[in-house]
Amino acid sequence: MLRGKYDPFAVNDIFAGRILLIAFQSVMLAGIIILLLWKKILKEQKQERIILKSILIGSTVFASMFFKENALIFIPFLLCITFLNKKNNSLKAGLISILTFCLLVFLSGCLYYYFTNDFFFRVKQIQTADYPNPCNYNTIQGNELLARLTYGVWTDFIVESFYPVILASVMILLRMIFDKNYNIRNDQWVIYFIILVILGLYFPFSFSSYQPLCFKARHFLFLLPLGVTISTSFLEDAWKNKRVLWLFIITSAILLAVCVVTTGEKWYWMMYGFLFLYFTLQKILAQNTLLYKLRYIMFAATLWIYMPYHLFFINSNWFKDIQSLAKKLDGNFFYFPEHDNMMHWELLHGFNGNFHSYNLEKEPFKVFVPYYEKLDTVSFNTGWFIVNKVYTERSANFLNKIDSLQQIHYFSKQISIGDMSAFFISNPSQLSYVKTIIVSDIKVFR
Fold it and tell me: How far are the Cα atoms of 226, 271, 305 from residue 233, in angstroms, in the given order?
């Protein structure tokens, strides 16, 4: 868009949240389609319909790969459920689905070869787009990968409204241990859910090193449909079987305790407390009371309150602030600690070539670098260093360092409007020092 410089697919660009969400939702939709088609295949009698539905499954996986590469997880999933259900057409369906996917990948490679003279163009494109970020465990020192493989994902699930997934996961474990009447072998959806959870947690997505899916909950949206299905089924069991209701109470208590221990978000403490209270009330209330009869509405209302946390507590008028700041700053040269806010700034100025914006990161996302204006290393230009304190990929440590410089009046001029601050860089040593702070910083997702 607009001279080819604005990339809406950047992590925090104005439209990126919606675009990324659409991509992850497309993978979730693909998962729903695959499960529904597979369920029909297992009951299908006509061979031509089995073949057609199997081809549709392979085509669905391939098509979803264009939205997000983590759709690749459905291929090992299909392999697992193919050999799990050796009867009822599953072997034939699984083989046709995977062969269809492989054929479409081959044809896609041929198409890339025709236009780029490189059959593996897309693979190389993904590899060269590698850059330091919290989900690139190859570039992060310490125990980040161990945390990701153990508790990291589940912690993020707790604070990202992934309640159906964590509820279903804990309930499955408790029912397997304490419910003698429950046989997991008879619950096909639970088996599929367990397979997807294991693959999502541990399946590698890199040829060069071990790279599992990013710990952020949005990468696991494909778990939500099965999580909702299983949680709903268990809830129905709870109204008929008081033992299952006790397990819901225990599960809620466990989730509340884990939430208190792992997060400092008192909103979520309150919400998990409400859910614990809800299931406890269902145990106490008589079936002829009004509250018991309204149990579904009460549960839905509680879950709805769970979600709008970000509307009330992680909210900022930063974009209005950046608009106001743009009207107050003079000069044509501007420096930024990350790509995203630089793009916001250029968008506000209509990508006017008279305004010069520079990303001071050492290793920005490689896809964007060819579009950057190169920093003049020969002659220095005074300009404004602009920091967004809320909508940023910089760490809290970086923001604290900038605040300390602001307090000692390191910069000759500084303007702050709301969550936006601008600092006037008047000499090369200041610019060099700011770049050093940025280089030593690590990116975080906010």
Answer: 10, 22, 22
